[in-house]
Please model this.
Amino acid sequence: MLKVRVIPLLLLKGASLVKSVGFTDHRIVGDAVSAIKVFSQRFADEMVILDLDAAERGTVNHNLLSRISEFCNMPVAFGGGVNTLEKADILFRSGADKIVVNSAFFTDLDVVRSVINKYGSQSIILSIDVRLGNGDYSVYYNNGNTKLLGKSLIETIELAEQVGVGEILVNDISRDGMMNGFDLELLQKARSLVALPLIIAGGCASKEDFKNAFNLGADAVCAGSIYHWVGESIIGIKNYLGEHNINVRKI
Amino acid sequence: MIVGILQTGHANIKSLSNTIERMGHEVSNVSTPQQMELVDKLILPGVGAFPAVMSELLSANLASAIVSFAGSKPLLGICLGMQLMLESSKEHGFSQGLGLIKGSVDILPKSLGPIPHVGWNEIFSEEKTCLMTDVRVHSNVYFVHSYHCNIVEDIEIIYTDFYGQKIVAGFQKENIFGVQFHPEKSQKVGNLVLQNFLDYKDA
Model:
């Protein structure tokens, strides 16, 4: 049976690994390559790496990705600033197994379509960044800086499935780095709407949070702070999940 | 031994070639039929959509070269590389495959669970295929695919369980091997599977 996935979410600024709060207030938590080396030895199920400067810089950081793929023996999803097919080509050639798109989906959907045509649906994760306000969830893009107008969360998900992305990552800006647990209402809402594999991020602070998310139907959980600030280990989390009958890959 | 990895322009071969080099073999990137003649074993790697990659193989005269390579030397297809070995695929329409294995590539059954089938899942086989030597039954390996192989000939098959339905996770037909999962991304178990292919000697 297919296992749920425990995925470290790693944010890059230059060659540094950073941690954010509410998509801003980035603090350096280490050197990217050495941190990723550690995660790759600790039996994470996959890694999601987002290059936060890429859009501003206008280029993708394929040198760093190439260095990572030299030692990384687990799947890597890489995102940040992928707004042309050529940039996707460079990332796949540099060792990405999947790419994560966000802004391109809202500003140039044809780019997403062309990536799907060339690499297949399974190679692309759409990150839908949401913020709770006035009792409803709004979708944001451009590193959480621009509110999507004229399309609701439901319509965004419907469009994603119609276009044929492979997985949906629902990233809760309001809880990013807050370590106050997942917004379980958001998770339930997303699960009821998304037929694709669903990854969630934003707020994870404890082993219980992983358990709650998986029990509500998440296929994968992304977390960053719990590893950087709490010092929780992937093995510890997986053992806990296994003891609570969650279908996790044991080591 | 020289292990060839087919270059298709779509493939992510870095981690694959690094893994094989760590196992002590020379890796050669193959993008022409002439280069293919110089390698002892060949791997067709895994990223891309079926029609896009197949048309590339045809226009570079690689499709017929792979078929004749498979007539005498060991060949391993990974993920899409394995699917290409079948007769046809329904990904983005209909396209012909290499026809080394009888069967077709179809979309996974949508009614059973989310597609793509992505993540770690268990592999098992009824026969003793040499790819599974020393691999514990129900070991977990990494899958990421929306299409799967419907094989209609009697060859040795490795399975995984897709929400209650057995689907093909790999096969062996004499010197022709395929795996739907990514051994290069499957940590220790994946290394073992790759090692088994590299250790394979024609009977």
About this structure: The domain at 5-243 of chain A is CATH 3.20.20.70 (TIM Barrel). The first helix of chain A runs from residue 32 to 41. The first strand of chain A starts at residue 5 and ends at 13. The two ends of chain A are 16 Å apart (CA to CA).
